């Protein structure tokens, strides 16, 4: 089972797929992605709440995608965020720790941080 000093699917149940589908495999974010989230947590020096981690193909947010998304690939988490200063810190630290995509923010209540492989040299950001 994957875990770090601050994140554990037994406690942080949103690290696992929560779709409830009978064929759900309860996948989690990968250990390598979680290790990077742990580094961000250590740098930001405050608790972080995971609101979404791994998602199976049956998850409602994955059903309409043409190809598997960051969560389905087990390379992304969404972190609760309602503070612009925390949002800025999360986005900067995500980039420092190898994030390939960062999105969302205080205006939508979470920051999406992904470590999916890409050939891009920048860190794409967008708003929901």
Explain how this protein is built.
The structure is a single chain. The protein is an alpha+beta fold and 128 residues long. The chain has two helices and five strands; from the N terminus they run αββαβββ. A five-stranded mixed β-sheet has the order 1-2-4-3-5, with helices on one face. Strand 3 (101-105) and strand 4 (110-114) form a beta hairpin.
Helical residue percent band: 10-25%
* Beta strand %: 15-25%
> How many strand segments?
5
Strand order of the largest sheet: 1-2-4-3-5
Report low-confidence residues grouped into runs of 5 or more: none
Major sheet: size, sense and barrel closure? 5 strands, mixed
User: If you compute it from the alpha carbons, what radius of gyration comes out, rounded to the nearest whole angstrom?
Assistant: 14 Å
Overall 3D geometry?
A: globular
Mean of all residue-level pLDDT scores: 92
Q: By helix and strand content, what is the structural category?
A: alpha+beta
Distance between the termini: 31 Å
Number of helical runs? Answer: 2
Quaternary assembly:
single chain
Order of helices and strands: HEEHEEE
Which terms summarize this structure?
about 130 residues; alpha+beta; about 20% helix
Q: Which helices and strands, and how do they pair?
A:
Blueprint: H1 31-44, E1 50-52, E2 76-80, H2 84-96, E3 101-105, E4 110-114, E5 125-126
Parallel strand pairs: 3-5
Antiparallel strand pairs: 1-2, 2-4, 3-4
Helix pairs in contact: 1-2
